[in-house]
Amino acid sequence: MQAFAGTSFDSLDSYALTELPVPEPGPGQVRLRVAATALGYVDGLMAQGRYQIKPPLPYVPGGEIAGVLEAVGAGVSTLAVGDRVVTWQLGGGMADCVVVDAADVDGVPGDLPLPVAAAMLVDYQTAHFTLFERGRLTATDRVLVLGAAGGVGAAAVALAARAGAFVIAAAGADDKRQAARALGAQATVDYRQPDWREALKACAPGGAVDVVVDPVGGDAFEPAFRSLAKDGRHLVLGFAGGAIGRLPANLALLKNADLLGVDVRHFLATQPERARQVRGSLFRRVRDGVLPPPGMTRFTLAQAADALRATLSRERRGKVVVVPQGGVADTGRLA
């Protein structure tokens, strides 16, 4: 099989398409023929050794994987060859096939295209966990979504809007803000502008927000927190802006506000059945047209290095998805 494998974390130049033996599933494992692998910001960091977790070498990037089962190991009774599935791993997806534990696999509804399932697997679950588990979102809340054109940001806009909240999307480019409006945002702001907080006050009902969804950090962090109403919740998902924001502690006291970390992997580890139920519900809502499918920028496996570079670019549009050449044909209706 072909795999995009790296022998060091020095740079993406250390990676190349390589012929590797087809792996065989052991007891309790399954082998997927990969149909699509979605990539996020973390994948770009991990492939270059810049993430807090450093996987062993040689390393095959890509963890948000969708495909079709082509082999099952001993003891696997709930899955069968031909099943359409997704799984979230720390890597292995930028290859023709991958072996994973059967317990880490979820089924995909028949009418949901596998690239869509891969693209929404992590971002939609993260956005849902952020808003409803950590953020305690209600229909009366005013929500500011930073990085609203990113994978998690766009999913948060769509989910919050459909929950009845007033959504303000923050993004730097006009086309990104227009895309957020199409997802359901009632207002937008350009947070690259020095007076963006004044623009936020002007469009937010009452001049403040109740919830901040923040996967960006950096210079937007403190102004966003200062924009909270009393009893507001600022949800920290990451630092795609490149810098870890800082905050005077007295602001939390003055606002009577919560600064909340969002670790979706902790949710998956401690509440696996609840997380599985949420994933299934999100898949069905996209299949049924209740939620919009994620925007995608597609690459082939031969373009794997460009795909990883795109994860770190502020200019990308939609979720980066890698589709192996000659891979699984998928006929879902949402492509």
TrEMBL record:
One Gene Ontology MF term: oxidoreductase activity
Source taxon at top rank: Bacteria
Residue span(s) of domain Enoyl reductase (ER): 10-322
InterPro entries: ADH-like_C, ADH-like_N, ER, GroES-like_sf, NAD(P)-bd_dom_sf, Zn-ADH-like_protein
Pfam families: ADH_N, ADH_zinc_N
PANTHER family linked: QUINONE OXIDOREDUCTASE-LIKE PROTEIN 2 (PTHR43677:SF4), SHORT-CHAIN DEHYDROGENASE/REDUCTASE (PTHR43677)
Name of the protein: NADPH:quinone oxidoreductase family protein
